Amino acid sequence: MSAFWIIVTGALVASACGLVGCFLVLRKMAMIGDAISHAVLPGIVIAFLISGSRDSLIMLFGAAIIGLITVFLIQLFTQSGVQSDASIGVVFTALFAVGILLVSLFTRDIDLDLDCVLYGEIAYVPWNTIDFMGIGIGPKAIWGVGLSLLLSVIVISLFYKQFKICSFDPAMAAAVGIPVALFHYLLMGLVSITTVASFESVGAILVVGMLVVPPATAYLLTEKLSRMIFYTIIIGCVSSIIGYYFASILDASIAGCMICVAGAIFILALLFSPSHGVIMRKLKQKQLIHEAV
Amino acid sequence: MLDELKIFLDPNTQWILFGSMLLGLCSGVIGSFAYLRKQSLMGDALSHAALPGVCIAFMLTGSKSVFFFLIGASIAGIIATFGIGFITRHTRIKQDSALAIVLTVFFGLGIVLLTEIQHSGTGNQSGLDKFLFGQAAALVLSDVLIMAVASIVLISVCILFFKEFKITSFDPGFASGMGFPVAFLEQMIMLLIVMAVVIGIQAVGVVLMSSLLVTPAVSARYWTEKLSVMVFLSGIFGALSGMAGTYISASGNNLPTGPIIVLAATVFFILSIIFAPRRGLLSKLLIHLLAKRSVKTSKVKIKGKERTV
Amino acid sequence: MNSPLNINDLSVAYQKKPVLRNITFDVPEGKLIGIVGPNGAGKSTLIKAALGLIPRLTGSVEIYGRPYRLQRKIIGYVPQRESVDWDFPTNALDVVMMGRYGHLGWIKRPGRAEKNFAMECLDKVGMADFAARQISQLSGGQQQRIFLARALAQDAKLYFMDEPFVGVDAATEKAIITLLNELKAEGKTVLVVHHDLATVKDYFDWVLLLNIELKAFGPTNIVFTPEKLQETYGGKLAMLENDNQSSLIIT
Question: What residue spans define the domains of chain A?
Answer without folding.
Answer: 2-292
